[in-house]
Amino acid sequence: MDSLPLGSQLRSSERTLRVPEKPVISNTSPLVGLWTLNLFPLLRELYTEVLIPEEVRGEFFAIETEVREAALKSAPWIRTVRLRNPENIATHAEVDLGEAAVFVLAQERDARLVILDDRDARQYAERIGLPFTGTVGLLLEAKESGFIDAVAPLLDVLLENGGHLSPSLIRDALQQAGETS
Q1: How many Å is the maximal CA-CA distance in the chain?
Q2: Mean pLDDT, the chain, as a whole number?
Q3: Could you give the CA distance from residue 93 to residue 42 in angstroms, rounded to a whole number?
Q4: Where are the domains of the chain?
Q5: Could you tell me the pTM of the whole model?
């Protein structure tokens, strides 16, 4: 890789951006992954706007607060919103607080997609009928849409920075991206 930050390699869309009829809502770990890769703009390119509940914002700021605050401030397409019915978090006790808040917000706003990485949370989303993707899915969609050239180097950076990606997920992602030898 050259000396440019990873995010600077993102190509802008020359097509009309999609304007979602229903919102896309993200959990903390995909935000951390995209922040690590300096690829917050992918969310704007793929979805125009992404909502996060206040609980996710709090989790995102738990580490490296000032740097992450600056990153989120420079990404106005990632919008923090308050839950209308925070008491409904208790109905999602099977998952952690941030994930529960994502599910409540998704139900309140009739979300078309939630972005989360945790396997248990993804299984829970499937059980309650919410469409989902994760960080790797975003990268695959970005490559397919022409916003990035390759997935493999980005997965390497995630792994080097503590990302939890199983060997089978990496293998499947590289195969889907057409990056296997």
Answers
A1: 50
A2: 90
A3: 31
A4: 21-146
A5: 0.86
